[in-house]
Backbone:
């Protein structure tokens, strides 16, 4: 606990957009429409401090449950607290069969992170404990910083909420090792986020999915794309009436359409 309290004096500030550093991108609406999606997208150029944004109001002013994107935070806290030893540490399957078949197995952190296996992270949260997690949420100034429900569901059930703007700020802090965690722990999480690495770009991200009160699927996709060793941070958030099984393909397709429209994927940025 002493290690956690030593971080309470650290104020981790998120950046935010203003009229002076925002380029609205109405041309991106066609990709949302094509994919039966309604939501927002923002991309931040770290070298120019400029945002390219579709649906500024939703990006800046609306709060949502982080769902599985919170696995970034859970992983960092778990690693820092020694509850997670490394990204290969196994949590044994409890033998309960769940609808998502690839959760029904022993899982490492690396695998659980990449398949959004909440069973793994629910067990990790129980091992960390509510008190420590609340201290970390306050230290990180993460979203609403509230746990009003169970320690193993609060990031899934709207107890905790965060804006896309805040998510983007958190990603930037993660990338540059500016969060109050050991550098090793930053790097372990960043390694789990790396999905594409080719001669033109590197694409790192995490995702999240839930059903809202209108029976629509609500999803996150956020991370960064690196071209010529320069990172650009992005957050995509939208809702759709499409089948949940199709969401992983839809959100990746939508992200790649947007990135291509903005000049990425060719190694020229």
Residues:
């Amino acid at each position: 606990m002493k290690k956690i309290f030593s971080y309470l004096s650290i104020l981790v500030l998120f950046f935010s957009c203003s009229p002076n550093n925002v380029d609205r991108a109405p041309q991106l609406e066609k990709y949302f429409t094509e994919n039966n999606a309604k939501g927002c997208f923002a991309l931040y150029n770290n070298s120019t401090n400029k945002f390219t944004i579709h649906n500024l109001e939703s990006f800046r002013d609306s709060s949502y449950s982080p769902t599985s994107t919170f696995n970034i935070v859970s992983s960092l806290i778990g690693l820092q607290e020694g509850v997670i030893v490394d990204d290969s540490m196994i949590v044994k399957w409890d033998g309960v069969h769940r609808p998502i078949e690839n959760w029904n197995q022993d899982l490492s952190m690396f695998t659980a992170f990449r398949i959004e296996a909440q069973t793994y992270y629910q067990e990790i949260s129980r091992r960390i404990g509510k008190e420590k997690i609340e201290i970390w949420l306050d230290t990180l100034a993460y979203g609403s910083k509230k746990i009003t429900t169970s320690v193993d569901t609060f990031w899934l059930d709207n107890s905790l909420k965060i804006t896309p703007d805040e998510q983007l700020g958190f990603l930037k802090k993660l990338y540059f090792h500016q969060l109050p965690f050991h550098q090793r722990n930053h790097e372990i999480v960043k390694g789990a986020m790396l999905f594409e690495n080719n001669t033109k770009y590197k694409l790192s991200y995490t995702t999240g999915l839930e059903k809202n009160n209108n029976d629509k699927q609500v999803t996150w996709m956020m991370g960064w794309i690196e071209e010529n060793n320069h990172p650009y941070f992005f957050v995509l958030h939208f809702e759709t009436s499409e089948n949940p099984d199709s969401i992983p393909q839809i959100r990746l397709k939508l992200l790649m359409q947007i990135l291509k429209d903005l000049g990425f994927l060719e190694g020229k940025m």
Q: What stands out?
A: The two ends are 44 Å apart (CA to CA).
